[in-house]
Amino acid sequence: MRYNFTEAVGEKITLTGNISKIPWQHLIQFFSDREHINYFDLENGEQIVIYSREPIICKGKMKIYGEVILTKGSSKRPQKIKDETYQEYQLLVDSWECLSN
Questions:
Q1: Residues 57, 62, 66, 72: is their CA dihedral positive or negative?
Q2: Nearest to 20 by CA among 54, 61, 51, 75
Q3: What is the DSSP string of 1-19?
Q4: What mean pLDDT is reported for the chain?
Q5: Is residue 14 situated within a structural domain?
């Protein structure tokens, strides 16, 4: 099942997954109130970037709750062929719950 984040931008949602051990390439933003950045593997195999105020201490499966945001940017590849704007959905984490450790 693929998540439909398009209609959830600005909404608060709950996701289940775990902190990734293998980060993929993603756009990154910086937030003064959310200094902790993690790559999060969703149960369906997708990966998103999440931003939290505190370090997330869960080692295994967990639930995260927060606001969906849309991040836009250009490619970081040195052999850029054309100007393109990329976008991806990310989460500003408000809280989390460890389900297993």
A1: positive
A2: 61
A3: -----GGGBT-EEEEEEEE
A4: 88
A5: yes
Residues of the chain predicted below pLDDT 50: none
What pTM value is reported for the model?
0.86
CATH number for the domain including 62? 2.40.50.140
Backbone angle region of 91, left / alpha / beta, with phi > 0 → left and psi within -120 to 50 → alpha: beta
Other CB atoms within 10 A of residue 88 CB = 15
- Residue 19 domain flag: yes
User: Helices then strands (H, E): number in the chain?
Assistant: 0, 5
Task: At 73, list the tokens.
Answer: 């940017």
Establish if 20 belongs to a structural domain: yes
Q: Could you tell me the residue range of the domain that residue 75 belongs to?
A: 6-98
Report how far apart, in Å, the C-alpha atoms of 80 and of each of 45, 58, 62, 83, 85 are: 28, 38, 37, 7, 12
In 3-state terms, what secondary structure has residue 71? Answer: strand
